[in-house]
Design goal:
Elements (H helix, E strand, L loop, with lengths): L5 H9 L6 E2 L3 E2 L1 E2 L10 H11 L10 H20 L6 E5 L2 H15 L5 E5 L4 H13 L3 E5 L10 H7 L4 E7 L11 H11 L4 E5 L11 H4 L3 E4 L11 E5 L1 H5 L20 H21 L5 H25 E2 L2 E2 L7 E3 L11 E6 L4 H10 L2 E2 L1 E4 L5 H7 L3 E6 L6 H20 L1
Parallel strand pairs: 3-15, 5-6, 5-7, 7-8, 8-9
Antiparallel strand pairs: 1-2, 4-10, 9-10, 11-12, 13-14, 14-17, 16-17
The structure holds pyridoxal-5'-phosphate.
C-alpha cells in the first residue's frame, strides 16, 4: 500500500514531467530513478526562462542585480534544505567534478604526509579522486572494505583503518548499487576521534532524493549532490564546502575574493532550479502538516518521502496478497538482504543462472524501465566481492506508486513462468 493517499500521490505525480510516458518510446513505468530522477515541471519552466536571459552577474543594472539575488536566494534555500548554518554552496560541472575538486583541494591543502582513507563501498567519483590525489601527494591510499552481507560500511570498519595521521577521508552516503545508506554522523565521529584534523568529503549524490540531509550534524568538509538525481535537471552539480576547507589555500582566481569557490560565470538558471526543488519539498511538507515553520515543512517532506519509499521497497520484496514479492521468486538473491533498515528506495537483485540483461530486456518490453549493473568500473567494487557478474537495479522515488510495483512483480512472475515452460 502507498504511504500517500491516492489524491496526494496524484497531486505529487502531476508536479513532474514524463511520469508515465517516455518521449521516445511512449508509456512506461519509471524505475530508473538512480540513473536520473524525474524532473519537476517547474524546473523545466525555470530553465527555459533563464536560458533566454543574456545578462551576466556583477553588473550595474537591474537585470544583473536580479540574477545575483536569485543566486543568493538559492544558496539560502539550499542552506535550509540541507541543514547547513555554516559553510557555503556552489555549483560545478557535475557531481563527479565537484567531488574531484573537493578531494583535490583537501589533499593539497592538508598537512604533508600521512594517508588518505576511502571505502570499497564508494562510487568511482570519490574513489578515483582519492586514489589519484593520494598518489599525486605521495600518500598511501588505504581502503575500508565494506560489508558484503548488509551492503554498506560502518563506523567500526572505518575505525579499524583510520590512523592519527589520516589527512583526508571519503564517505559515500548511500550506494547507487546496493541502495543502502550509512550512518554518516557515526563514521565522521569515529574518524575525528582518531584523526581530529582529517578532512571528510562526502558523496551525497545517491542519497539526496531520498530525504533528510543535515550537514550541521555531520562535522564534515564537503558534500556534493547531482541535481538531476534530485528532481532538477542535468548540466550542473551542487556542493557544500566547510569554512575550514575554504580557509585553506584552495583553487581560486588570483586576487579574487578569498572565500570564493565558483570558477567562472554561473548559470543563474541552475541555481534557480534548486529553489524550485526546495519550493516543491516545502509544498509536500505542508501537505503533511500545516505549519509556518519552513524547517519543519522540509523535515516533514523528508519523512514522508522515506515512508513512501519504504512502503514501495517493502512491497517489492515481500509482495502483497496473492502477488508474490521478489523474495518468493526462485533463485533470487537481493543485495543487502530482504530486511535492511538502511535501504533507500533501491533494490538490486539477481536470479541465479539468468543474465540480468535478459530480465531487464523482458521488463523493458513490458514497458517497465529498470537497469543492469555490471561488474565494471562503476559497480565491480560491489559485485566482484559477491562473485556476481551483474544485477538488476530497480530504483524508486516517492512519486512511484504501489500499483507500479505490482506491475513489476506480475511481470517478473510471468518471466519466471516463461523461463520454466521454455
Ligand atoms: C553515488 C554517486 N556518486 C557520483 C555520481 C556521479 O554523478 P554525476 O553524474 O553528477 O557526475 C553518481 C552517478 O551515478 C552516483 O550515483
Amino acid at each position: 500500500m502507498d504511504h500517500f493517499s491516492p489524491n496526494l500521490l496524484a497531486e505529487i505525480r502531476d508536479k513532474f514531467a514524463f511520469v508515465e510516458e517516455c518521449p521516445f518510446v511512449g508509456e512506461r513505468i519509471f524505475f530508473e530513478n538512480a540513473g536520473g530522477a524525474l524532473t519537476l515541471k517547474s524546473v523545466v519552466e525555470t530553465s527555459s526562462k533563464f536560458a533566454a536571459i543574456p545578462d551576466n552577474q556583477g553588473r550595474e543594472n537591474a537585470a544583473s542585480k536580479a540574477l545575483m539575488e536569485i543566486i543568493q536566494k538559492a544558496k539560502s534555500d539550499a542552506a535550509e534544505l540541507f541543514g547547513a548554518t555554516v559553510g557555503q554552496f556552489f555549483v560545478g560541472e557535475s557531481g563527479t567534478e565537484l567531488l574531484f575538486r573537493l578531494v583535490r583541494n583537501a589533499a593539497t591543502s592538508a598537512k604533508m604526509g600521512g594517508n588518505i582513507v576511502g571505502s570499497s563501498f564508494e562510487h568511482p567519483a570519490t574513489r578515483s579522486a582519492a586514489k589519484y590525489w593520494a598518489f599525486q601527494t605521495n600518500r598511501e591510499y588505504i581502503n575500508v572494505q565494506h560489508n558484503n552481507q548488509n551492503g554498506h560500511v560502518t563506523a567500526e570498519l572505518y575505525s579499524e583503518i583510520v590512523s592519527p595521521d589520516t589527512r583526508v577521508v571519503t564517505i559515500l552516503h548511500a550506494s547507487p548499487v546496493t541502495g543502502i545508506s550509512v550512518d554518516l554522523e557515526a563514521i565522521s565521529k569515529a574518524v575525528h576521534s582518531i584523526s581530529p584534523e582529517a578532512f571528510i568529503i562526502v558523496d551525497g549524490v545517491q542519497y539526496a532524493a531520498h530525504g533528510g540531509i543535515t550537514i550541521d550534524q555531520y562535522n564534515i568538509d564537503g558534500y556534493a549532490i547531482s541535481p538531476y538525481k534530485m528532481y532538477s535537471r542535468h548540466g550542473y552539480g551542487f556542493a557544500w564546502v566547510s569554512d575550514r576547507l575554504t580557509k585553506m589555500s584552495h583553487e581560486q582566481l588570483l586576487d579574487g575574493p578569498s572565500e570564493n569557490w565558483e570558477l567562472g560565470t554561473r548559470d543563474t538558471g541552475s541555481y534557480a532550479t534548486l529553489s524550485d526543488v526546495v519550493k516543491y519539498l516545502e509544498w509536500l511538507g505542508e501537505k503533511v502538516e500545516i505549519t509556518n515553520n519552513r524547517a519543519k515543512k522540509l523535515n516533514n517532506a523528508a519523512k514522508a518521502i522515506a515512508a513512501q519509499e519504504t512502503s514501495l521497497t517493502d512491497l517489492m520484496i515481500n509482495g502483497e496478497d496473492n502477488i508474490k514479492g521478489l523474495k518468493d521468486l526462485d533463485g533470487i538473491e537481493i543485495i543487502g538482504g530482504e530486511k535492511n533498515q538502511n535501504r533507500k528506495g533501491l533494490v538490486s537483485f539477481r536470479i541465479i543462472g539468468i543474465s540480468s540483461h535478459v530480465i531487464v530486456e523482458f521488463l523493458n518490453n513490458k514497458g517497465i524501465r529498470t537497469h543492469v549493473r555490471k561488474a565494471d568500473h562503476y559497480s565491480g567494487n560491489i559485485l566482484n566481492p559477491l562473485g556476481w557478474e551483474d544485477c538488476v537495479r530497480v530504483s524508486v522515488c516517492h512519486y512511484n506508486s504501489s500499483e507500479e510495483i505490482k506491475s513489476l512483480l506480475l511481470a517478473l512472475y510471468e518471466f519466471q513462468l516463461d523461463a520454466l515452460t521454455n
